[in-house]
Structure formats: C-alpha cells, structure tokens
Amino acid sequence: MEFFKEAFVIAIKLLFSFDRELYGIVLLSLKISTISVLISSIIGIPLGTIISLKKFKGKTMLINIINTFMGLPPVVVGLTIVAVHGISAQIQNTAVSLGASKTQLVWTLIREAKYSIGASVIVAFGRLLAEVGAVMMVGGNIRFQTRVMTTAIALHKGMGELQQALALGMILIFISFLINLLLDIFRKGKVYT
Fold first, then answer.
1. pTM of the model as a whole
2. What are the CA-CA distances from residue 47 to residues 53, 63, 82 (Å)?
3. Which 8-state DSSP code applies to residue 20?
4. DSSP assignment letter at 191
C-alpha cells in the first residue's frame, strides 16, 4: 500500500512538472481522437441517417454488421442510426408533406436528432481516446510519434514505471470525466439550444 501511495504522490508531482513528453502524449491523444471523430462524423452522420430512412432488403443485416463493428474502434454510423431511428415518423411525414427533397429531409432529421447525435459523437470521442488495441495495431507505440495515453500507460506499467503510468491514467480519467460531463449536458439539452 505504501508503494502505491508513493507512486500516487510522484504522479501528482509529474503532472504539475509539465513534462514535455507526458503532455506531448496527452496532446497527441486528443489530436488523433478529435481528427478521427470529425472524419467519422462527417461520413457517419449522413450515412447513418440515410440507412435509418431507407427501406431496403438486407437493412437489418447491414445494421447488425455495423453494430458488430462498434465493438472495434468506434463507428459513428451505428450510433447515428440509433439516434435518427428514434425520431418520430410524424416529423418525417411533415417534412415530406411540406415538399422537402431527399437531401432536405436528411438534414431535417439530423437537426431533429442533434442531441442524440451529439451524445453519440461524444461517446465515440471517449472510446477513441481510451482505445489501446487498434492504436497498437495501426500506429504502434513509437516515442514522440504514435505514442498516445493508453499505449504509454501499458508501456510504463509493463516496465514497472508506475508513476508515469499513474500520471497518464489520472489525466485519462480526468478527460473521461469531462467527456461524461459534456454528455450529461447534452442529455439535459443545455447545448444546441
């Protein structure tokens, strides 16, 4: 227990030392997660909306396949399908009866599902930030190039450097807390008003 307490104190000191490598790892993690969630949102939100709207043979199988891939690094399409699918059919019927084109209908439904979509994007960001396996497979764990928080935690723990691993873990937990706080704000509808 004493060793853990000592590691915790050293980790706190390390956090406030503004170590270049430590914060480089944190910034790279945030940068990669942000870019990934932006790219997947740009592709996934419209695609998820279209899949939710269209009736076609094999739709259930396609959704099951997409949901299966959500077990891998986050896929926003699946979360977006769920968000848009929950919109009342009355909104869709009203937009169509008012003469909305297919494109206008898609964007109307995206606007109506903005809270759910926003929550989905935040969840995807959180999952991206905490991803270890895919990062190791794709980018490895190269110092100052591809090392992110989760791979650095695994590396330092494996080397017995608990202070560094603990410092990164504390930052990751703090960022996860902020993500959950954002998610709670979205749920309560305080954002996008």
1. 0.72
2. 10, 12, 12
3. H
4. S
